[in-house]
Design goal:
By secondary structure, this protein is an alpha/beta fold. It has 4 helices and 5 strands. The chain is globular, with a radius of gyration of 15 Å. The two termini are about 20 Å apart.
């Protein structure tokens, strides 16, 4: 048995990408197994609004920005991961522009990282969980 501070973490897609959400939850599970006892931190993915940390995955468009802004205003930790790959066949230029404007707006307000593929997303998330 060990004592740990438990962080409730909301992991979600801000643009409908679900595969990356599964990747993020798996990274959290593995991080907990490898680090929770040593660090005294445990990250618990939850679906409720009462959370300590928000992890948002952004693909080629962005929705649900109000939830991000509310978390930032509440002083909660927010991490946004933007997919660097933009498939021209599945990207509407105006949605891409909105996503880029949102990314620019969030710079300096929360962690904004760009990833290229699920492996890189996992590495970035693992690295940044350790910083909480």
């Amino acid at each position: 048995m060990f004592t740990a501070k438990v962080y409730r973490v909301m992991v979600g897609s801000l643009s409908g990408t679900m595969e990356e959400v599964y990747v993020a939850k798996d990274v959290i599970r593995k991080w907990n197994q490898e680090n929770a006892e040593r660090t005294g931190k445990l990250f618990m993915p939850v679906e409720c609004q009462e959370v300590d940390v928000m992890i948002g995955i952004v693909g080629n468009m962005v929705e649900k920005t109000d939830a991000v802004l509310k978390m930032i205003e509440a002083g909660k930790k927010v991490m946004l991961f933007f997919n660097a790959f933009q498939d021209p066949k599945n990207t509407i230029p105006t949605e891409r522009e909105e996503m880029m404007a949102f990314k620019e707006k969030m710079q300096g307000k929360c962690l904004c990282a760009e990833y290229n593929g699920n492996v890189e997303l996992g590495e970035l998330l693992k690295e940044n969980l350790s910083e909480i």
